[in-house]
Amino acid sequence: MPLEKEEFSVSQLIYNFFHFYSYDFDPESMQIDIPKGGFSYKDEHDTSAFSIIDPFDLHNNPGKHVKTFSDEHMKIKD
User: Is residue 37 a contact partner of residue 53, using CB atoms and an 8 Å limit?
Assistant: First the structure.
């Protein structure tokens, strides 16, 4: 059975993106898993505030520069 294509406006996509990462995504326990195309649970040794699995280098975390108490993070969080 073919999947039905849902069409959203650009504003709906942007709203849904920010809503998901503000309210639904838990960066303390989950990470963005680009190679698998979704999310996975963090390794128990991962203490970074935001984790992304790099598809070209699985040991690189592009999100490692996000700091929990940085000015930029606090602006987004508020």
Answer: no
